[in-house]
Specification:
Strand content: 15-25%
Order of helices and strands: HHHEEHEEHHHHHEEEEEEEEE
Number of helices: 9
Largest sheet: 4 strands, antiparallel
Radius of gyration: 24 Å
Number of strands: 13
Helix content: 40-55%
Strand order of the largest sheet: 8-7-5-9
Oligomer: single chain
Structural class: alpha+beta
Length: 305
């Protein structure tokens, strides 16, 4: 029996025996083979046989491949952590990612996998809006609305927009039974959707993290008269290309809220404003201008969006 057939047979056997923990381990071990299997499904071939995918799925595949070419691949290292065994050197192991979770679900329940994938795509859109400062302050969020906002601002390339719209159409039809697809076609949609997720994560944009949550700020250049009810929030900003880092300071009244290292959305309260303000340099202690004029930064922690 060929390797892919062995993998599929093993996964099915384990899922029937209801061994979820062991199933996850097996999926993780064979995830590269499973990715290759899904890629064959995307290309319309499986075990040497030609497969004819639905025209809607073929169009989704075409626009996603074009979208991949429009956006540069992300510069992100594989996630890993060290495991120490007494008497032995620490060994680095790769940590499963959210895409690994989708692959695991796809092996046993493609329908559930596509729902999970749609949640990840929606989440990525929400993060993009947050990072770019255009996420609505209320809870009224919808992927189509998010796509529309990104289109209006010119943040998404043409084919990425089309590919997203195709995915949501297929997802809704599959979930609501309006699209009587075979299992292999659902797997093909999942594989194409994972490529779309990687493309979204490659959209160039600034990322802000908290460097110092509460620097004392002053109304005079000698830093003798401290302002009350407001502090300076120092953010570390990663450039869109990921190659440069810079620090910036903004006023905030959210004292005690921000935590070092956490990523924050680009959000402002323009009803609160401060004129020229000073602070002491974090390294030298010398007085420095914090800002000449600034509204209040109120960005939420990105994982709370």
């Amino acid at each position: 029996m060929k390797s892919f057939e062995l993998i599929i047979s093993l996964i099915i056997a384990l899922s029937k025996l209801a061994w979820p923990a062991l199933l996850i381990i097996v999926i993780f071990v064979f995830k590269e083979d499973i990715r290759a299997l899904l890629k064959r499904l995307r290309k319309g071939k499986l075990l040497g046989q030609e497969l004819e995918l639905d025209p809607e799925i073929q169009e989704f595949q075409r626009t996603t491949e074009l979208a991949e070419k429009e956006v540069a691949p992300p510069i992100t290292p594989a996630i890993s952590e060290s495991v120490h065994v007494e008497g032995q050197a620490s060994v680095k192991i790769q940590v499963p990612t959210d895409t690994d979770e989708v692959l695991s679900l796809a092996a046993s329940s493609p329908e559930v996998a596509i729902i999970r994938l749609s949640a990840l795509l929606e989440r990525e859109l929400r993060l993009l809006l947050g990072d770019m400062g255009i996420l609505p302050g209320n809870d009224r969020f919808h992927p189509i609305m998010a796509t529309g906002l990104l289109i209006n601002k010119g943040y998404l390339p043409k084919n990425t927009i089309t590919s997203l719209q195709k995915f949501w159409e297929l997802r809704n039809k599959l979930v609501h039974g309006q699209f009587p697809a075979e299992k292999r076609e659902i797997l093909a949609v999942i594989d194409i959707g994972l490529s779309l997720l990687r493309t979204l994560r490659s959209i160039p944009h600034e990322i802000n993290r908290v460097h110092n949550p509460g620097v004392a700020v002053f109304e005079d250049h000698l830093c003798q008269r401290q302002l009350t009810g407001v502090v300076g929030l120092v953010l570390e900003t990663q450039s869109p290309g990921g190659m440069e880092m810079k620090k910036r300071i903004f006023p905030t009244t959210r004292i005690g809220y921000y935590q070092i290292g956490r990523r924050v959305a680009w959000e402002w309260n323009f009803n609160n404003k401060w004129g020229e303000t000073w602070y002491r340099d974090l390294d030298t202690g010398e007085p420095r201008t914090a800002w000449s004029s600034s509204a209040e930064f109120v960005g939420r922690h990105i994982d709370e969006l």
